[in-house]
Amino acid sequence: MTDTNPPSERFLDAIRGALGPGACITDQAGIEPYVTEWRGILRGRCSLVTRPTSTAEVSRILSICNEARVAVTPQGGNTGMVAAALPQGGIVLSTERLNRIRELDSDNAAMVVEAGCVLKDLQDAAGQVGQLLPLSLGAEGSCHIGGNLATNAGGTMTVRFGNARDLVLGLEVVLAGGEVWDGLRTLRKNNTGYDLKHLFIGSEGTLGVITAAALKLFPGLGSTETVLAALNTPDDVLKLFVRLRVQLGDDILGFETFPSLGLKLARKHIPDIRDPFAGDYPQYALVEAFSHRRDPVLRESLNEAFATALDDGLILDAVVAESQAQSDALWRIRESIPEAHAKEGATIRHDVSVPVSKVPQFLTAGKTLVEQRLPGVRVIAFGHIGDGNIHFNLLQPEDMAKDRFLARMPELNRAVHDLVDSLGGSFSAEHGIGMVKREDLARYRPAVELRMMRGIKSLLDPNHIMNPGKLFLPEDLG
Amino acid sequence: MKILVPVKRVIDYNVKVRVRQDGSGVETVNVKMSMNPFDEIAVEEAIRLQEAGRAEEIVAISIGAPQCQETIRTALAMGADRGILVETEQDLEPLGVSKVLRECVDRESPDLVIMGKQAIDDDCNQTAQILAGLLDWPQGAFASTLKFSDGRVDVTREIDGGLETLSLLLPAVISADLRLNEPRYVKLPNIMKAKKKPLDTIPIEELGIDVAPRVSTIKVEEPPARSGGIMVASVEELVDKLKNDAKVI
Question: If one looks up domain A9-97+459-470 in CATH, what number appears?
Answer without folding.
Answer: 3.30.43.10
